[in-house]
Amino acid sequence: MSRALAIAIVALAVFFAIYGIAVHTEVGQHADEAALAGGRSAPERAQSGASSLLRLVSVGSLGAAVIALGALSWLSRRPWLIALPAVIVGLSLAAAELFKLVILSRPDLWASSLHGNSYPSGHTAIAMGLGLSAVLIAPERLRGAVAVIAAAFAGGVGILVVTAAWHRPSDPLGSFALTLAIVGAIVALLDRRERGEPTPTPAEGRAPPSATIAARRLEVAAIAAGILLFAGAVLLAALRYGPAVAWNRPHAAFLGSIATILVAAGLTASALLRILPPDSAAAGSNG
């Protein structure tokens, strides 16, 4: 089994594990709702600004982003990757909406301010799909930098959907796992077709040393950014509002959730770096 396929299977297992814990346990639903309550205590400007930014993710903007990524593939002399962003984003969004609206359900274990099942987040699936597509089509020497941007973008959208109270914190986490599962399966399929062999050798599917180093750096940076985000938000609120802030569990749950979302986005992008060999089908033998 290739590393890409193994990552896809693990990511899919994580997707269902998050669903089982966050949606089908009272503790999970309580934690999600506490984070939403904490987010609603944020300044009104932050909530309205988050909603306004999320409305920019429309059909038109999505199409423009996919076309732009396809154009970059063409300009980099790898026209066989033109359709890849559209496939990844399309499958990620379709899978997220299918799971959310048709396949998965939400039992009423804890009173919630959001109606019905919201797992996973379609907006976050689009963002992560675009980000991972960019990593796939990027030249090998730029993948690390592109992965950082992809993680920041997808993590930002995940934080926005929670801040705007459009989604529970578990929803973007599930979208990260689902999108990674789809991309991992696509990379495994392309890699096998490129090699033309029925069974991969143990060396196949391994990322080059430079990609492994970039992945490690991204993982460390993501964890550090999550810690700084949590501590920085607490410090900023304390300095600006002082004793007027009545710290409680919902505040901690909200800050903890957005920090976790940022870390998870970085880990998702780093996982893709680890499964892209230098001459894989996704990267192109002439890239």
Description:
The chain has 10 helices and no strands. The protein is an all-alpha fold. It has one domain (3-274). The two termini are 25 Å apart. The relative contact order is 0.17. Mean pLDDT is 85; it is low at 197-204 and 279-287.
Low-confidence stretches: 197-204, 279-287
What kind of sheet is the major sheet?
A: none
Shape: globular
Q: How many angstroms separate the termini?
A: 25 Å
Q: How many structural domains?
A: 1
Number of helices: 10
Report the sheet-strand fraction: under 5%
Rg, nearest Å:
19 Å
| Secondary-structure element series | HHHHHHHHHH
Classification by helices and strands = mainly alpha
Which bin fits the share of residues in helices? over 70%
How many strand segments?
A: 0
Mean pLDDT score: 85
